[in-house]
Amino acid sequence: MATAAAKRYAKSVFxxxxxxxxxxxxxxxxxxxxxLFADPKLAAYLGNPTVATGERxxxxxxxxxxxxxxxxxxxxxxESGRVKEAADIETEFQRLSDEAAGRVRATATTAVExxxxxxxxxxxxLSRRLGKDVRLSVNVDPRILGGLRLQFGDxxxxxxxxxxxxxxxxxxxxx
Length: 175
Known about the structure:
single chain, 175 residues, alpha+beta, Peroxidase, domain 1, 4-stranded mixed sheet, 8 helices, 4 strands, 60% helix, elongated
């Protein structure tokens, strides 16, 4: 769950990206920043308040992977102590982009890998029911034993065998 600060940063970047008319470029910048800040040693250095802010920002400004706008945002995150929130900012930015484009990201969790036909069927059916374009990602988790757990937005549809067995166990214990 993104913090209030991460949501504010994402909203500001999203509004800037809309004004520039270049959501994709900003999405790439945020991904690059997240990837850079994901390095544990770099994140520890950039988040270390005992190192002068100027020194930490200088390290970021030397990055050959970021353009001018990306560098400015990364330096702002370093200055404000938000290095650890880069992933949340990226996630919230993507959520805002999807919402603006009428898209929904969904995750299907199954016990075994789905065939492409099954993926397409789930995507089509969910798109039809929601009336939006659905971007589906699939996770395999053998612990659910069978069935499907589908998550989109704040909604979870859990039709997994593991959940049904747990519900049955609870009913048997109560009686």
